[in-house]
Amino acid sequence: MYDFGAVSVLFKVNISVRTNFCTFLQVTNRQEMIKAIYQSLAARKQQHKKSFAVLIDPDKVNDSNMEKLIELAVDARVDYLLVGGSLVISNYLDECVQFIKRSCGIPVILFPGSPSQVSKYADALLYLSLISGRNADLLIGQHVVSAPVVRQSGLEILPTGYMVIDGGAPTTVSYISNATPIPADKNEIAMCTAMAGEMLGMKLIYMDAGSGAKRAISEEMIRQVANVIEVPLIIGGGIVEPEKAYLNCKAGADVIVVGNAIEKDPNLIKEMAAAVHSVPVKA
């Protein structure tokens, strides 16, 4: 005679074990996936491979021009797509990110100008702390407000020390942040700021001259900062020529971000990407 009661218990135990094991696998896979973007950035730095990222402002694109932009980015082998801006006044953020995800496999990283610029459809989020200024709200205040939403988003969070460098003209980021940029010729201030950010636990350092800057960050400042930190160094703002992107990489930049110049001429994507990727890989 079969003991159906015992069989029933064993069946339930088996189902429970399988369910718990599947849950364990899902959590483990999620934990591995959640680190994918940073691991990619760190690995490329370790291998001395330079990366090129296109910055897309949701206020300045739509489905029709996005299609062409993504096609150019894929053909040029762009490494990352950054989405965001100092001011995002449209409701196109989610749609923009979803459009990109449907259209290509290039990782999408949010570059938020405010706590509201969070989209669960992206791959990662630059959690920017303005370490170059003295605005407490952008150093930690907005992070406190946005923390629950950011945590619930499921995005990979990339703690980023954000440094605004004087680009020779007032920019949206300097106006919105109400913070004085680091002077373009004060390399030692930039060095110490980047070191402090790294020692505070920032996983990335992002130096930005701002959209519409008249001059890009100097190679000498990039070189001196790169020499004193070990985390990946991102450089953006005022880069309008492929040669400048190349020189910035030679100076020590790990990731070059271009947005404004590509908004004016999307065909620059190919030349910029080629310049960044042409930097010799050190043995």
Q: Can you identify the CATH superfamily of the largest domain?
A: FMN-linked oxidoreductases
Query: In one word, what is the shape?
Result: globular
CATH fold name of the largest domain, please? TIM Barrel
**What proportion strand?**
5-15%
CATH architecture of the largest domain: Alpha-Beta Barrel
Largest beta sheet, briefly? 8 strands, parallel, barrel
Distance between the termini: 72 Å
Structural class: alpha/beta
Could you name the CATH class of the largest domain?
A: Alpha Beta
Overall mean pLDDT score? 88
Helix content: 40-55%
Which stretches of 5+ consecutive residues score pLDDT under 50? Answer: 19-33
User: Could you give the order of strands across the largest sheet?
Assistant: 1-2-3-4-5-6-7-8
The run of helices and strands is HHEHEHEEHEHHEHEHEHH
Our count of domains comes out at: 2
Give Rg in angstroms.
22 Å
Total helices: the number is 11
DSSP, total strands: 8
Structure write-up:
With 283 residues, the protein is of the alpha/beta class. It is 48% helix and 15% strand. The chain has an 8-stranded parallel β-barrel, surrounded by 6 helices. Strand 2 (80-83), helix 4 (93-103) and strand 3 (108-110) form a beta-alpha-beta unit. The longest helix is centred in the N-terminal third of the chain and has 30 residues, at 4-33. The N and C termini lie far apart (72 Å).
